[in-house]
Amino acid sequence: MASTVMPADSAYLPSTVRRTAKLLVAGHFGVGKTTLVGSVSEIAPLRTEEAITEESVGIDDLAGLPGKTRTTVALDFGRISVDEELVLYLFGTPGQRRFVSLWENLARGALGALVLVDTRRLEQSHDVLGWLEERGLPYAVAVNEFDGAHRYPPEEIRDALDLAPTTPLTTCDARDRTSSVHALITLAAHVLHCLESRP
C-alpha cells in the first residue's frame, strides 16, 4: 500500500512507526460516519459537530432521523495502529453536497474511501458515489444496518446504487468496533488490489 514515510522524530507516535496511510469515511447526511470513526479510533476522535438549527430546515433532509440534533461541518478524525510500523488515519467527511469543497480537500492524499449507505435512503448516496467515480478514488461500500431498517439482498443494493461488479459491498454496524474494522479491511484489500493492478 502506498503511504507516507514518517520522520523518526514524530513525537506524537511511537518511534517504531514509519508509515501512515489516509482513508476517507464518506457517505450522505446522517449515515453514521462520525459514529464509525469514533468506534474504531484508538485515540479520542476529533469531531467538528454543530447543532442542527431551524436554518437547516428545507436544506438538510431529517426524514428518518428523528433523534439527530448535530451534524459534522468540517471533518471527523481518528487513528488506528495496524502494527508497530503502520498507522491509518481516518478522515470522515461531512455528508451534505454543499460541503463538496471540503470533500476535495479531505481527499488529497487519500488512498481510498469507505462509503457508508443507509438502505432507507439509498438515493442520497448518488452524490458521493458520483464524486468518487469522477476522481477515480477507489472505494468500498458498507451498508450501515440501522435498527429496524429492512435487510435487502446484496444484489438488490448493488443494482440500486449502480455499483461496478468490482466494487466491494459489505455490511456493518457503525456502533460496533469489530464490525466497522471489518468494513475498513474490505476497503484496504480493495485499495491494495487497485494499486497492484496499476500498470
Automatic annotation (TrEMBL):
Segments passing through the bilayer: none
SUPFAM superfamilies per record: P-loop containing nucleoside triphosphate hydrolases (SSF52540)
Record keywords, A-Z: ATP-binding, GTP-binding, Hydrolase, Nucleotide-binding
Keyword GTP-binding: yes
InterPro entries, per the entry: Gliding_Motility_GTPase, Gpn, P-loop_NTPase
GO molecular function: ATP binding; GTP binding; hydrolase activity
Gene3D superfamilies found in the cross-reference section: P-loop containing nucleotide triphosphate hydrolases
UniProt keyword annotation of NAD present: no
Pfam families according to UniProt: ATP_bind_1
Superkingdom as given in the UniProt entry: Bacteria
PANTHER family in the record: ATP/GTP-BINDING PROTEIN-RELATED (PTHR42708), GLIDING MOTILITY PROTEIN MGLA (PTHR42708:SF1)
Annotated family: Belongs to the GPN-loop GTPase family.
Name this protein carries in UniProt: ATP-binding protein
Organism: Streptomyces carminius
Lineage: Bacteria, Bacillati, Actinomycetota, Actinomycetes, Kitasatosporales
